[in-house]
Specification:
Order of helices and strands of chain A: HEEEEHHHE
Number of strands of chain B: 10
Largest interface: A-B, 34 and 31 residues
Largest sheet of chain A: 3 strands, antiparallel
Low-confidence stretches of chain A: 1-12
Shape of chain A: globular
Distance between the termini of chain A: 29 Å
Structural class of chain A: alpha+beta
Oligomer: heterodimer
Radius of gyration of chain A: 12 Å
Chain lengths: ~100, ~425
């Protein structure tokens, strides 16, 4: 499983210090393993592979920054890397957008 | 005529096991499904996966279709792949497309192009939520029309021109790869580029009428390799509906060189709804053996999806059988259930197009090809079924034929 949308150029645009939110055309469907995301505009499907990242993604718009959202879900600096990577992938595929 | 899952994008912090393992157990609702809206068709393609031709008098009404869409919305089924038959010959086709997209159910529909005139193209260009797939099985009229019928190439190209002129972006050209067109992949790509479209290629399954022509039309072993190499070289930007996962074993043990889930999603993450509300495990499995239930008589779609005995079985761990000792099992996972079934091979053995060659030896052994149990072809004669006819001038269907066995497909229309 790959993230074909991820490129170095797009990655630079993801700023964890800013507020992001789900793209208005994205539907999130909870699943036992996490959630499915579907973008009605790009017709892309994404998977969130655990329930913590699901909660983080859902709450992004309520926080001043991505890092605030992570902290609110108990993810500290030492643990944030995989989450930031996942969120960057979502940003690259326009699943989440700057608020 | 249909699509399963295009390669997904994944976000995967702390691992919770492979998604493919999650999906094999089945989801509470399909991610997407195929919905054949009608068995009526103006064409008579020799490889039609749904043996379409004549309309079924029991075809779901507009209201019944809308009730299904309501249910799909509640289940958060993200989109439906609408096909047929030729779905646009239903008089309520656009009404249903609008109803679905207004209810957060995206629509991708497959058509031979018969109704995509300039007016329809303009209407489609104005919508953000509808994808169009034009079926084409040859990059030239000669190759295409031998399979889809005289005039069908021109019909499809006209539709593509109309869409392109109207400013519809990113239509799909949907190609079933055969022995005759596998050498035309570059030409298909050029054709797609010409119309600002995306090429989508899928596997020929021996389903529906294709049971009669599969032996002659399916790519040879050498061609399978050629196809795999082409996908590895040019796969970026070409859609496959994840349908070539049986070729993954060309990539060595574990596969992985083709994007996608490399999983049979039948009854687990996808399924088929047919024009009369019957639910089957997948679009290539319209047969009693893969019948999960009926939406009208078994308490609705959600109930069939959750409670069908067949689907429950498909969500159990499957026996790898004869394939269990193969080093490449993780790459192809035994291949396609429908391809095995309709070539008369055992379900727990190799795919008929197994790239290790085990399928070929199985095909040479004793086998009985199953009789079709659902057939709406205009002719039952084998020779005639192997020769596609010129398009039948269907008028918009407003009421079902008087009786099931009407000889004339246009009776009562």
């Amino acid at each position: 499983m790959t993230a074909p949308g991820a490129t170095a150029v797009a990655t630079a645009q993801f700023d964890p210090g800013a507020t992001w939110r789900l793209h208005p055309q994205v539907a999130l469907r909870p699943e036992p393993f996490g959630a499915l995301l579907y973008h009605f505009g790009t017709r892309k499907l994404s998977f969130l592979k655990n329930t913590v990242i699901v909660a983080v993604v859902r709450s992004l718009g309520e926080h001043d920054s991505v890092r605030d959202a992570l902290r609110a879900h108990g993810i500290d600096e030492n643990a944030e890397r995989p989450y930031l990577h996942a969120l960057r992938t979502l940003a690259d595929s326009h699943m989440i957008v700057p608020a | 005529m249909t699509s399963l899952l295009e390669p997904p994008v994944t976000s995967a912090p702390p691992k919770v096991g492979r998604l493919v393992d999650q999906f094999e157990k089945g989801l509470d609702a399909p991610i997407c499904l195929t919905w054949e809206l009608t068995y009526a068709c103006n064409l008579s393609c020799v490889h039609c996966l749904s043996s379409s031709g004549k309309r079924d008098p029991r075809e779901l009404s507009t209201e019944q279709c809308k009730a299904i869409i309501d249910e799909l919305q509640r289940m958060q089924v993200f989109y439906v792949n609408i096909g047929g038959g030729e779905p646009t010959v239903r008089s309520d086709f656009w009404e249903l497309v609008d109803y679905a997209t207004e209810h957060q159910v995206g629509v991708k529909f497959s058509t031979n192009g018969v109704r995509i005139d300039k007016k329809v193209a303009a209407r489609l260009a104005a919508s953000d939520y509808v994808d169009v797939q034009i079926s084409l099985d040859g990059a030239t009229a000669e190759v295409n029309d031998a399979v889809r019928g005289p005039g069908s190439f021109a019909m499809a190209v006209r539709a593509l021109e109309n869409l392109s002129e109207a400013g519809f972006r990113d239509a799909k050209i949907s190609v079933v790869v055969t022995r005759e067109n596998v050498d035309q992949l570059d030409e298909f790509k050029a054709l797609a580029d010409k119309y600002g479209a995306t090429l989508r290629i899928t596997r020929l399954r021996p389903s529906g009428r294709a049971v009669d022509v599969w032996d002659d039309l399916h790519p040879t072993h050498e061609q399978q390799r050629q196809l795999y190499d082409w996908l590895v070289a040019h796969g970026e930007g070409v859609l496959t509906g994840d349908s070539f996962f049986h070729l993954s074993a060309f990539g060595g043990e574990g596969g992985g060189s083709l994007p996608g889930l490399n999983l049979c999603g039948a009854g687990r993450v996808v399924c088929l709804i047919d024009p009369v509300g019957d639910v089957y495990a997948c679009p290539f499995a319209i047969h009693d053996n893969f019948h999960a239930g009926n939406i009208l008589t078994d308490g609705g779609f959600a109930s069939v999806w959750k409670n069908s005995e067949l689907f429950r079985q498909l969500r159990e761990p499957q026996s790898a059988g004869a394939c269990s000792s193969c080093n490449f099992f993780d790459a192809c996972r035994g291949g396609c259930m429908a391809a095995k079934f309709f070539t008369g091979l055992p379900m727990d053995g190799p795919d008929p197009e197994c790239v290790q060659g085990y399928g070929q030896s199985a095909l040479e052994g004793e086998r009985t090809v199953p009789q079709s149990s659902v057939d709406h072809s205009r002719t039952g004669k084998r020779a005639e079924r192997r020769t596609p006819q010129a398009p039948v001038p269907l008028t918009l269907l407003t009421k079902p034929p008087a009786k099931f066995c009407d000889e004339n497909p246009l009776a009562g229309l």
